[in-house]
Amino acid sequence: MAKFLAKRALSLIFVVIGITLIVFIATHCLPADPARAAAGPSASKEQVEEKRVELGLDRPVYVQYLDYMKGLLHFDMGKSYKSKQPVTQEISSRLAATMELTVLSLIIFFIIALLMGSIAALKRNRVIDHIIRFLSVGSMAVPPYWLALLLQYFLYYKAQWFPSGYRLPAGMAGPDTVTGFYLLDSAIQGNWTLFALSAKHLFLPVLSLVIGYCGITTRMMRTQLLQELRQDYIRTARSKGIQERTVIRRHAMKNAISPILTMLGMQAGGMIGGTVLIEKIFSWPGLGSYALEAIMSMDLLVIAGITTVMAVIFILINLIVDISYVLIDPRVRLS
Amino acid sequence: MKKNLKKAAAFVVILTMLMSLGACGKSEDKKEDKKDSTNAVSDEDKTFTAALGVMPSNFDPTNLVGAGDMNASRTCYEPLVEEVRGTTELEPWLAESYEVPDAKTYIFKLREGVKFADGTDLNAEAVVYSYNRAMAFVSSISTLVQEIESVEATDDMTVTIKLKSDNSGFLYNVAKIGIISPTWCKENESDGDWAQAYCARHSCGTGAYQISGYEEDQYYTMEKFEDYWGGWKDNQIDTIQTLIVKDNATQIQMLNSGEVDKLQIPITENLDILEANENIDVLTEESLQTNIFTFNTKKAPFDNLLVRQAVTLAMDYEGVKDNVYNGKATVPSGFMPAKFAEHDDSIPQQSQNLEKAKELMEQSGVGECNISVHLCEGSDDQVQMAQILQANLAEIGITLEVKVMPWLSMVEENSSPDTAPELSALNMGAFTGDSVFFLKQNFHSMYSGQPYNWSFYENPKFDEAIDKATATVDEKEKQEYLNTAQNILVDDCAALYITSPDSVEAINNKYQGFKIHPLDYYYSIRFYQISIGE
Amino acid sequence: MMKTIKKYFFRDIPSAMGTVISLGILLFMIIGPFVTKFDPLTVDMGAKLVKPGSAHIFGTDEMGRDIFSRLAYGAWYSMGTALAVVLLAALAGIIIGGIAGYVGGWFDNLVMRICDVFLSFPQVFLAMIIAAAIGAGIGPTIFALAVSWWPNYARMVRGMVIVIKEKLYVESAKSIGMHPLRIIFTIIIPQTMSMVIPQITMGIGNALIAASGFSFIGLGAQMPTPEWGAMISQGSRFIFNAPYYVIIPGIFIFLAVLGFSLLGDSLQEATNPELKNL
């Protein structure tokens, strides 16, 4: 286990170096001038040069890169040109919002996919199987951002059942920060009004993400479970007279879930990116729309910071997935 | 299965904890701010709710990065002289009176009894500090203070500003420099940064409202400053809440349903929904904006005056007005918007004359050609204008290619005539009320290849008229120079002056006293003037 | 012949649906521009936001352009983008994955680590940066998506190559001194096609969603290009009084993705019969 973790940590460092390098090279090849962006649109040429020196952008790219990496060791990602705030602070205040959306959607669609996939597999070729298969293919084909627009149109504008967006009603302060997840924090503090409100605000964005992503997982769950049910050991177990339900629970489910978890890890990454669109539609104060603003205004260190953080989270999720294999099935060896 | 569930649950918990690590960076003082804002939400009408598309990156009076940043900063901080809302005229503000002995010297006598939000008094030292701060680092208002030679406190309540060269329009710049509390700034400084980091998210000016809380990308709140020098009446607003709503259609819908009281976006579409709503007043005013396509006058075919004239005559101005802006626009007469008092009203409006345009094209001997226009990303009106022009130019044998680009790339390519396209779209709104500077910045040769003389227009006669208008303090003389300059721009077709869109704003009519202000790109509202009910 | 067609394209109801919908979209692309009497770009301000009806079957947009005609012409942009993304990514993936799998050792290791880097890079952010670098548009979208997708194909092909290269016929090709590149591309890669082609077909759908999403946030195709995602983006500004402007282009994306996904499934089942029984 220790060896495995060490190996993973090593690959994490490799990925972080790789990603920051790509970001640095890419942002320094941009045709637009970050010093000009920071100095303001009507600044004169002299003022732009002055700004360049102030921001240290006059130094060679490799010096800037090494400087950045040095800071990264102390979790210092520099300051935003625009707001003068430390990038770590800028990111952390928005990360929780994105994560609440992503994690909640992941959990919900994982459960839905597990249930629907299993039902479809166990009732193979019955009506319910066909319905589930049809729904999952349909879900895969729906563009999530389009779905979000429709949900907003029908459930906010037409029916007035849900708010148009945000985490809470206009200007209402969130619960005191413990995890940064409003739902969790308000529950911890026993503030159930806030809990209900924040759940109501989460509903539409989460629904858009869940529908958009659960199809493929449902399908995979069905396939995996069917494959397991055809394995020899299941037949053996059955022939031994063990109850069908026990067979399914003890053996088939357990083995079918592992590959699903792997995929979930990969999907989490895609989803963090995919929330950009959903965040924009629902005015969700997350990292995605902030990244878009940063790129438009050439806030270099913010761009680098966000991509680094995203990648690290992505890797950590996959690490957790790997570790959870061991928890679910101790026979799995980490290699 | 049960065991598995437990494990799955453990997995979920680990995941959750991991994700929330990111949330630990929140600072203490922000929590206090939050509590303040919840207490005050009690009286509904006393809280004015506005919607803004992007979170301001700064509340600092100096570091104004995006246009939306002005919304808070112009409310919290006040200048020595202020723009009368709805006009470009100036009135004494934190300065009780001022003297301009010559175009280089400005003397301000400060108002007595003005307090900053931290309880300290406004005095000459505070003004000197604020100006030094504005000059200390490069920011978007650097251009306004770059010609200052010195700022001195003549006595405790008098400030003298000396300029390097004559500029009779300098008072317009003064109206943009907010005065900040030096005591508070020095307390919150870190590494000699003039408290830039702290000021970005807090405020301490003399303004009627001060920042009281915010949540990144969600909202920020301004609370009334009890000791404001103007005093308070019962029917004024206590709290201003600005929500960040990223989607335009949603903003309109929220105004319509009463969730917000005012929008901070120029409204061009969905107007019919708002006009039909009896709780909402839709206000329309002429603006200080001219939307132009700059001709690259250093490159064929627009180095040829005849071709520029032909294009100017080919454009369907009425079509743009009616179709792009639903009739809520003015066909311009020259570059300077007619709302400027200094506008020369003898200049005729632009008009289409395709026959004449074809003749001029023939005379020019240029023949059929391909040109391209570059537009700024996210500007739908520019796309529509370009499409109309495209159809018009096809009639005189010019093929127009339309390309949309990021704003910063446009700035970059327009730094040299070789990289600039034949046409570049610019929606030029006045930032200060200085009409001389409005012309100068776009067409003076010293700005060639810099923002925003993207025409690379160089004409010594125009330069001379502008320089003289800048230097003189005599109003009549100034007007004569300005008339000359305006006419030169029309005769030379320095750019294609397409339209002056009206500013359209909508506000819930339970609030009175709101005036559309044509400067600051419409982002500065004097909330102090707004009252509830009659 | 008929049997082969049935095996690949009309196996069962979903498979037939996939084939029919995909064909329908292709037909719409080809015939649509001839059927409509409207130009997709011509502005007609007199007919702004006309509701779907007899004059304009799918209505008009905010500049009076016919939505049916824009969808028909836009299909070329949307489908073309999706196809280009998948083909580019697959091509790069096959070449890189093929060589890495065959050569093995440190080179394989390096390639896989590079794949990790690209896979951990949220593709939307990558696309944002690329769009900022070379400007938003269809070209940058294709480039950005292909750059972030090739590792998927590279991994898949590499895995298969590792298995195939142990086969006897590969060994014998080696023993007669065939050049390794020739072995990879004439003997091994064709063997992987049965897996790769269904993946490509299914990938078209995903690429379509991703590319139209880029247009939606303003990084992809720009107005007035009638790309479907850009149309939804533009329409979203009028959603409260002209919902059809958002709904109709979305239905086209939905159908296209559905069609190609089902078709991909069908091809996969046909080429890998062991999946059939599931």
From TrEMBL, chain A:
Pfam families: BPD_transp_1, BPD_transp_1_N. It comes from the Bacteria. SUPFAM superfamilies: MetI-like (SSF161098). The keyword Metal-binding does not apply. The keyword Transmembrane helix applies. Residues 95-325 form the ABC transmembrane type-1 domain. GO terms for cellular component: plasma membrane. The chain crosses the membrane at residues 101-122, 134-156, 202-221, 260-282, 302-328. InterPro entries: BPD_transp_1_N, MetI-like, MetI-like_sf. Signal peptide: none annotated. It is a multi-pass membrane protein. One of its GO terms (molecular function) is dipeptide transmembrane transporter activity. Its main location: membrane. It is found in: Cell membrane. Gene3D superfamilies: MetI-like (1.10.3720.10). Keywords: Cell membrane, Membrane, Transmembrane, Transmembrane helix, Transport. Belongs to the binding-protein-dependent transport system permease family. This is Peptide/nickel transport system permease protein.
UniProtKB/TrEMBL annotation, chain B:
Keywords: Signal. The keyword Signal applies. One of its GO terms (biological process) is peptide transport. It is found in: Cell membrane. GO terms for molecular function: peptide transmembrane transporter activity. GO terms for cellular component: ATP-binding cassette (ABC) transporter complex; periplasmic space. InterPro entries: Peptide/Ni-bd, SBP_5, SBP_5_CS, SBP_5_dom. Pfam families: SBP_bac_5 (PF00496). Its main location: membrane. It comes from the Bacteria. The keyword Signal applies. PROSITE patterns: PROKAR_LIPOPROTEIN (PS51257), SBP_BACTERIAL_5 (PS01040). SUPFAM superfamilies: Periplasmic binding protein-like II. It is a lipid-anchor. Belongs to the bacterial solute-binding protein 5 family. This is Peptide/nickel transport system substrate-binding protein. It comes from Faecalicatena orotica. The lineage of its organism: Bacteria, Bacillati, Bacillota, Clostridia, Lachnospirales.
From TrEMBL, chain C:
Pfam families: BPD_transp_1 (PF00528). GO terms for cellular component: plasma membrane. It is found in: Cell membrane. Its main location: membrane. One of its GO terms (biological process) is transmembrane transport. It comes from the Bacteria. It is a multi-pass membrane protein. Keywords: Cell membrane, Membrane, Transmembrane, Transmembrane helix, Transport. Residues 79-264 form the ABC transmembrane type-1 domain. Belongs to the binding-protein-dependent transport system permease family. PANTHER family: D,D-DIPEPTIDE TRANSPORT SYSTEM PERMEASE PROTEIN DDPC-RELATED, OLIGOPEPTIDE TRANSPORT SYSTEM PERMEASE PROTEIN APPC. This is Peptide/nickel transport system permease protein.
